[in-house]
Amino acid sequence: APLLEVTEVSRLYPGPRQGWFGRSEPTRAVDRVSLILHPGQSIALVGRSGCGKSTLARMILALDAPTSGSIRFDGMELAGKSQAELRPARRQMQVVFQDPYGSFDPRQTAEKLVAEPLYLLDAPLSRAETRDTVAEALHQVGLTPQDMEKYPHEFSGGQRQRLSIARAIITHPKLIVADEPVSALDVSIRAQILDLFADLNRRLGIAYLFITHDLTVARAVSDDVLVMHDGRIVECGKTLDVLAAP
Ligand code: ADP
Ligand code: ADP
């Protein structure tokens, strides 16, 4: 069965008013989008800025509700659910943003930051179990147990992105939504982080929805690609074919 099934999903925003007496036309940020993602599959979602990628991602993460359409994740319809009802689904998906600095509390150690998703589990782990689990997640992303005691500013940009990936994988989610996760990184670091993403997909079988405006980034992490334009999916196929198209 699919892990994620998005069916005819739209999201309208109230548009800007046209002049003093003009009627406002709503913005169709996402316009009747459908997609299917299987367990362990990595799909890249590409398109230029403003085409609706983040809006779609927020709906899949149940952070925003569709105006219409259906989103099924792991066998559960997300639309119309309460926060409490969404918790089991939320635990199975994590997000990695472009700039982890923005979502890291500078006063917390890496241990606390990476452990954050664990605090939301129904059965909280002991301090020792938490440390072991954090150490394992850090190991998976190429950091060391010593890094647990450090604060965010003591890490380089690439290492900080490793930290946010460690936080994303710590609960063994079935899906990671990565929103431009390498766009803020130096080109030399970018390739290392993309290798890490590809490696985790292969080793841990985590599915990705990998959002990027860059097709060469898409190629590094996903065999399959969806191209979005003006809120719609205008093309889907194998990344190599889409890259090769004129
Ligand atoms: P506009 O008409 O708004 O100026 P363009 O047609 O020049 O936009 O650019 C389309 C953008 O949409 C590309 O930059 C790309 O991000 C994305 N895109 C990629 N492939 C397609 C496609 N086959 N059809 C439409 N848009 C595409
Ligand atoms: P992308 O992630 O591809 O850059 P977004 O999903 O951020 O695109 O935006 C898609 C469209 O929806 C844009 O036209 C944007 O201006 C509009 N939009 C996004 N968020 C809002 C909002 N909160 N209110 C009104 N319009 C929005």
TrEMBL record:
Residue span, ABC transporter domain: 4-246
Superkingdom of this protein's organism: Bacteria
Family: Belongs to the ABC transporter superfamily.
Protein name: ABC transporter ATP-binding protein
Source organism of the structure: Oryzicola mucosus
